[in-house]
Structures are given as structure tokens and as C-alpha cells.
Amino acid sequence: MQDVIAALTWIKQNIAHFGGDPGNVTVFGHSAGAYSTFGLLGASSADNLYRRLAGFSGGPARIVPAWWAEELAHRFVTELDVADNPDKLIDLDPASLVAALRTVCPTDLGVRGGVDNQATGVVLDAGQPGAAVHAHPKDVLASGSHRDIDVLLSMASDDMDWWVTNDLARFDPHTVDRITDEVAGWRIPRSRAKKLVEAYDQDGRTPAEVRAAVMADYLFGLPAARGALAHAAAAGTAHLLTIGPAEGAPAVHGTEMYALVGQEQPDRSPDQAERDTRIRDIVLDFATGEQTRLWPAVTDQPTAESVGNPPFEGTAPLLAGLDAVRHRACAARRRGDPSAP
């Protein structure tokens, strides 16, 4: 976060010399880049350094508490046997660092990015030396303090299917019952968790595909919808986008990367070319403030635009995810759970 803020500070001070407008800066990112982008909302030192924020498969979520970040760091240096002198880290080879990280962190992304968020996201480090992020970005959106910042939040319709295709051995739960166990572990009542999973267990999906569909909405769709609704309720402008598949380009994590950087995937189909050109133009229209070229902003419902050929109407999974989290919130509040959303 400090590196991003330093870069934005340089832009603020120097971009006019290159013909740019320091008051019209857009920051956007994908996946980890999207979480960092929206992490800027919680960093007061980044205020007035940007005008618009866009996140693709990531947004105002995945915040790691400082206590867990410190504990994870302790386990990491202990595994490497340098806890007494962390400066020795600089002399270790990268392979040993990766191996140690895999030992102390879950390797299944579903576990790493679950409700307790064990190893994915931006650290809420208020009160720590050199702290950058002082508040949860969704809370900042809800407060209205950044209502003048436009936001765009996006997900791919089959975001988590990347892990089904590329990391099945670790990702596969093998049975649907295990998915219900996992969702119930998110502090959702088991009866509700069972109904939630059943809603995704359709169309001949394998257990891995069911888990991927649940996780896609939980990790990406739900935070996007909640963030957009919070910003809209505080009189901010928010747009939601769902990216569907195109011929030769399934809508998995990263499907839009060529479009986001204005490039063309080699040997792409005409269908993908049309989809990716539309994504590119959306980013450009958003960054230049051409609101009339975009679809209507979110009001009190998470209405979303769709590109490509998503298997559902753009808003449907967002509404389902919000319904699930409302049930979790009610149950948690009845128990006095401080983690209740």
C-alpha cells in the first residue's frame, strides 16, 4: 500500500508536466490489485490522490486484522528459523521462502480466502509502526466521506472455475456435504448453509464446480454488491459489472486481463474480440468520466451490467448472496458476534 501511495503522490505532483490532470486520476486493478485499489479508501494518506477506483474480481473486502498478520509473520520466520533475526530473510533463496509460506498458510484458496481470510488481502494496520490502512474500505464507503469518488466493481461469472481447471487436486471437496460443512463454518446456520449450497447444486455440476460457484459469489460478487450499495446509500456513484464467457474464453479468474491493459489475446475468437473491446471501452469511459456511456448507477438494488454471455442475468447472484449474508448477520447478532456484517 505504501508503494501505491508513493506512486500516486508522485503522479499528483508531476503529471501536469506530462499533460495530465492530477484531479482526474483513476486507479484500477484485478484480483490482489483490486483489493489494493480499494484499500486506498482506508488509507488517509491517499486522500485526494485519486478520483475513481475500479476493481475487477476484488474490491472493498478481504481485510486482514493486524493481530493475524503479525501471527502469520511470526509463524513464517519461525519456520525459516530466523525469528531471532528477521533481517536474515534477505539472504534466503526465494524457493525456501515459498516453501515456508506454503507450510504456514493454507494452500487451498477456498480456505485461504474464506470468512476468516487467513492469507488474502490488505492488512488493517492502524496503530502499527508505519501503518497505512486505518479503516475498512467498505466502512469508508458507507460513511459518505468519499462520496465524490466514483467506483466500478466487477466479477467474472465463473471466477473460481480457474481453480477447478488448474488446481483441482487441492480445490475438490469430493462431496457436496463437505461444501455444506464449509459454509456452515462461515458462521451461517447449517440449515441455511444447506439451502444455499442446494441452490448451486444444479445443472449437473460436480462438487468442485458447486464449490467454485459458491465461492465466486462469496469472494467476489457479494463484496462488490455490498460495496456498491453502501456507496450508493451514501450518495456516491457506483457501477456493477458481470463479465461472462466468450467463445474460446471461459469467464474464469483473469479472463479480462488482456482487455484491461488494452491488448488482444492471440488467436482470439470474434466473440471474445467483441467482449474484450466492450470491457476496454467501459474502463476508458469510466476513467474519463463519460457517465452517459455507462449503464445506470446502483441505487437501492445491486443492478449490474453484463458483457459476454453470462449464464445468468447480471444481478441474480448478487441478490442471492445478499440474502445469505443477511441471514448470517441476523444469526450472528442474536449471538452477540462482533464479526456480524
UniProtKB/TrEMBL annotation:
Family of this protein: Belongs to the type-B carboxylesterase/lipase family.
Class in the EC hierarchy, top level: hydrolase
Keyword set includes Hydrolase: yes
Residue ranges annotated for the Carboxylesterase type B domain, each copy included: 2-239
Keyword check for Hydrolase: yes
GO molecular function ontology, one term from the record: hydrolase activity
Superkingdom of source: Bacteria
Organism: Amycolatopsis balhimycina DSM 5908
InterPro entries: AB_hydrolase_fold, CarbesteraseB, Carboxylesterase_B_AS, Type-B_Carboxylest/Lipase
Keyword line: Hydrolase
Listed Gene3D superfamilies: alpha/beta hydrolase
EC number: 3.1.1.-
Protein name as annotated: Carboxylic ester hydrolase
